What we know:
The protein is an alpha+beta fold and 120 residues long. The protein contains two helices and seven strands, in the order ββαββαβββ.
Amino acid sequence: MPKLTVEGVGQFDVPAGKRLVKALVEEAGTDQLHACGGKSRCTTCRVHFVDGEPKQITEAEAETLRVREVTDSGVRLSCQIACDHDMTVELISRLEGSGRSDQGSPVADEIEPEPVWKDK
């Protein structure tokens, strides 16, 4: 079972293959945003990888980051990442202080859209 460490929150066991955005909310109990419901249409689910950044990226994530001009090293969309190894992240997009009324739309168990993987 992969270990997810969330800076300032703690360390959590996560079922292998679970979407990072869901693990941040369900296992870690954080207020991670996910406005588009985990479909890689926005960038509200951004996290910064401190350790364990995946070596692959979905085409949808790469395109969303490009279009939204998110170029910071280690910043990824948690909705497009499966927890398949140990990782340490720092939360960037949280409900607290966002002015939003909720974290976002429900997130499916599987990565959406259908992932097409490429090397980062």
